[in-house]
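WP5 quarterly update. Target: HMA domain-containing protein. Source organism: Acer yangbiense. Length: 121 aa.
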Amino acid sequence: MDCVGCERKVRKSVLGMEGVTQVDVDPKQNKLTVIGYVDPNKVLQRVRHHTGKKAELWPYVSYDVVAHPYAPGAYDKKAPPGYVRDVSQDTEAASLSGATPFEVKYTTVFSDDNLNACVVM
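Structure tokens (predicted):
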């Protein structure tokens, strides 16, 4: 979104949809946030149709949501601060970012949640 007119056009195209309660536009990140009960694919189609611009779902999630945010496929240098790529949709990257049973076994040994855990000081 280059100008205020583009921002207004995108906002107006989505505000008229049934189920949309709030629309936030961030022109610096080229990001449109839609809050409400509405199908994301219908929002994409509507924005593409009304504006003639390319639109896609936001590929990033907060790094707190991902189990291994620095795994290959999840970490992305282009992501805004505090965000990583959403690897739950990508089957190849999701397999790389998940913990193996071997890792889970040894990380829970030293967990505070495990009452029988081993403590090393």
